[in-house]
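Worked example 3. Consider a protein that binds magnesium ion.
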Amino acid sequence: MTQKPEEPEEREQLQKIRAGDVRTASRLIRNLEDESPEARNAMKRIFPYTGRAHVVGITGSPGAGKSTLVDALIASFRKQRKGVGVLAVDPTSPFTGGAILGDRIRMQRHAEDPGVFVRSLATRGALGGLSKAVGDAVHVMDVMGKELILVETVGTGQQEVEIINHSHTVIVVLVPGMGDEIQAIKAGIMEIADIFVINKADRDGSHQLLNELMAMLNMVPEFPGGWRPPVIRIGNCFDPGPFAESLGELAAAINDHYRSLVETDLLGDRMKRKTMVEIHEALRDAILAPILKEMTESGEMEEIAGRLLRKETDPYTIAEEVARRRLK
Amino acid sequence: MTEKKIRIMVAKPGLDGHDRGARILARCFRDAGFEVIYTGCHQTPEQIAATAIQEDVDLVGLSCLSGAHRYLFPRVVELLKEQGADDIVVIGGGIIPDQDFQTLYDAGIKAIFTPGSPLDTIVRWVRTNIRPRVNL
Ligand SMILES: Nc1nc2c(ncn2[C@@H]2O[C@H](COP(=O)(O)OP(=O)(O)OP(=O)(O)O)[C@@H](O)[C@H]2O)c(=O)[nH]1
Ligand SMILES: [Mg+2]
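Given these inputs, the predicted complex is written out as structure tokens:
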């Protein structure tokens, strides 16, 4: 492999990130979000050092209490002296391209803890409840030495299965009385859970939800690696005693799940799944994106659209033509 | 390559719990196409500086109605500087008497907007004064 020799500032960037420098890391994440070519090159240097962190995804409907839970989990894992990274995703407005990123409001008590790095990401048009930069941002935090990385998805409650491509452990947060379980089943979210949380268990219907989940899990003939997703009821976050207790249970389940992945060798499978997604994305960026860009800028796209509208050709023929012309 | 987004943090230091103004500003920035990190009320200058660095924002907009701006605003500027992040621009808003403006400018606050300032003036100020950064 031929690569141009490393510049001193490039080496310095890598060193700083490996030493946990927040400013350098956050700037790199930002350049990744902006899809700068330099940032892409930085990732080539970073990639060999990735793969040590335990990545935990947290998904569930809007307002389910995901951020509140992340805040409590940070506290819990800091007690275990683990370095914690958080990536909190909120939606970009499709109308203005702007976004209000408010997840970290609930986590501000950790703002000054040097062992905690919280970074908000906007979806910027990505589907699936995450941002396109999330995979790379996970890598950056991993290389910074964060042992636990919590990824909070947008919380549309729909199509958020993308999170499984980026995490080792997925927590699905449900709330009683919101018809959440139906929504979640429809969105295919039930299948992705490694741990279920029934949040706001102070509310009516939490026992019923628990029973429904248990009944559902009882119907599953066999769980991969023998891991049956535990269902954990989390008490009212404004009721410190019981909340802390149920939280301890959740933190333990997170550690147990990781251990189980390691012991059953399923960790390798998950890593592989993650890597496959990365290859897909990288190929799309390297091959498809430049073609689309050029076709758009040259006006070819516009012309094709006209021909399609007049039914002079069809999208499938166009795709074959483009492939023949460009991918030799 | 997508465009370079401007990232802004809107924060309320101090003890007053009225964040209506700050919320309006946050929404207005979003509608202008910026990414806004909103952190709510009761933030200490230390929390604000740490958050601005973690989020790598271009700009911190501080809103304060309690009258403690003369201490709080300069303190944020100072903390950013101490942490090597003095390229992050700090502006202030809220109930700020005219006679305090100069002191705040001298302390490194780049602009001050009072409740009477039209929102589009603020957005225009951001667009002309903030260029998203690339290198570090
Ligand atoms: N009653 C009760 N309310 C809670 C509990 N946990 C969180 N809340 C409240 O639920 C609301 C939403 O909490 P968040 O943690 O922001 O929820 P979220 O899922 O992160 O929300 P989005 O990111 O906007 O989807 C807040 O007003 C919390 O105070 C709980 O255990 N019991
Ligand atoms: Mg949230």
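Take a moment to read the result before moving on. Residues 69-82 of chain B form the longest helix (14 residues). The beta strands of chain B are 7-11, 35-38, 59-64, 89-94, 111-113.
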